[in-house]
Amino acid sequence: MEDRWMWDDSLRLGPPYRSIGFIVCLILGAWSAQALEMSVGKIPSLEAVNGSTVMLPCTYASCIGIENLYFNWQFNQSGTMKKVCESTIPSEEVEPDVTIFEDRVTFIGKNHHNNVSILLWNITFEDAGFYTCFGVNPKEKGRNHSAKFHLMVVEELRVVDNTLTIIIASAVGGAIGLLIGFMLLKNLTLFVLSKLEEKNKECLVSSSGIDNTENGLSGSKADSKPTPKKK
Ligand SMILES: *[C@@H]1O[C@H](CO)[C@@H](O)[C@H](O)[C@H]1NC(C)=O
Ligand SMILES: *[C@@H]1O[C@H](CO)[C@@H](O)[C@H](O)[C@H]1NC(C)=O
Ligand SMILES: *[C@@H]1O[C@H](CO)[C@@H](O)[C@H](O)[C@H]1NC(C)=O
Ligand SMILES: *[C@@H]1O[C@H](CO)[C@@H](O)[C@H](O)[C@H]1NC(C)=O
């Protein structure tokens, strides 16, 4: 009974709910004119030492899904855009065949979770600059979108003075510790108070209990409770 009801309910609510989501998605897409989105992450830059290997991160997102999504990575080499790699992704979670135009580049995202990141091996100072992750989704009337990633190549990483960070971190940690301690103390106090109150109530009940036993109230209550309901 229960199962059938749930099944019916999902049938009734499922499709309209999904199509509402779809319509909202279309409206949002049309309104922002950018349904497809390429993202290089929250921090779109990286400072790396020459000779190291870096990942240029990129993921795509599309609320109506993709079909033959074209994407490429381009490098802005003193004004001219040089293609690093390109491919067409038939559908989500299908590993695409990627054409690579540079020796030291590997496609590592493999379209796993919309991931089209690449690896740049043994970077040189000439590799520094802006990399663009570009995509076109034919399913969205060929809408395109791109995101820029800034790679900085340095001889050695600057030694960041961490003292202030550590001071702040320990201050924040200390404050949180104090707060937790205070909350625990407060809870403990409340607990003790509630226990005391309970005891007080018990005292009140037992003191007035003499009256209850006389008219048989407390006795009947205690008896009715443990009776299990069986059919
Ligand atoms: C990085 O560049 C410096 C200066 O050109 C050079 O001395 C060093 O060997 C380079 N490091 C690597 C790992 O290539
Ligand atoms: C990167 O450099 C190392 C050591 O020089 C070399 O063995 C390796 O093949 C290089 N990788 C690429 C992709 O060029
Ligand atoms: C993309 O794939 C690479 C390689 O598997 C991984 O290191 C990276 O974290 C992935 N990025 C995202 C955003 O999932
Ligand atoms: C990307 O789309 C814009 C319009 O949104 C268009 O002007 C531009 O030419 C497109 N770029 C490419 C490379 O297709």
Describe this structure as you would to a colleague:
Residues 15-150 form the Ig-like domain. By secondary structure, this protein is an alpha+beta fold. The protein has two domains: 35-154, Immunoglobulin-like (Sandwich); 163-216. It contains three helices and eleven strands, in the order αβββββββββββαα. The longest helix has 52 residues, at 163-214. The chain is flat, with a radius of gyration of 32 Å. The structure holds 2-acetamido-2-deoxy-beta-D-glucopyranose (4 copies). One 2-acetamido-2-deoxy-beta-D-glucopyranose (NAG) binds at residues 50-51, 155. The site of one 2-acetamido-2-deoxy-beta-D-glucopyranose (NAG) has 3 residues, from loops.
The CATH class of the largest domain turns out to be Mainly Beta
The structural domain count equals 2
User: What is the overall number of helices?
Assistant: 3
Total strands: the figure is 11
- Rg (C-alpha, Å): 32 Å
- Biggest sheet, open or closed, and with what strands and sense? 6 strands, mixed
Query: Which strand order does the major sheet show?
Result: 2-11-10-5-6-7
Q: Share of helix among residues?
A: 25-40%
Unreliable residue stretches: 1-15, 206-216, 218-227
CATH hierarchy: architecture of the largest domain: Sandwich
> Which kinds of small molecule does this entry bind, naming each only once?
2-acetamido-2-deoxy-beta-D-glucopyranose
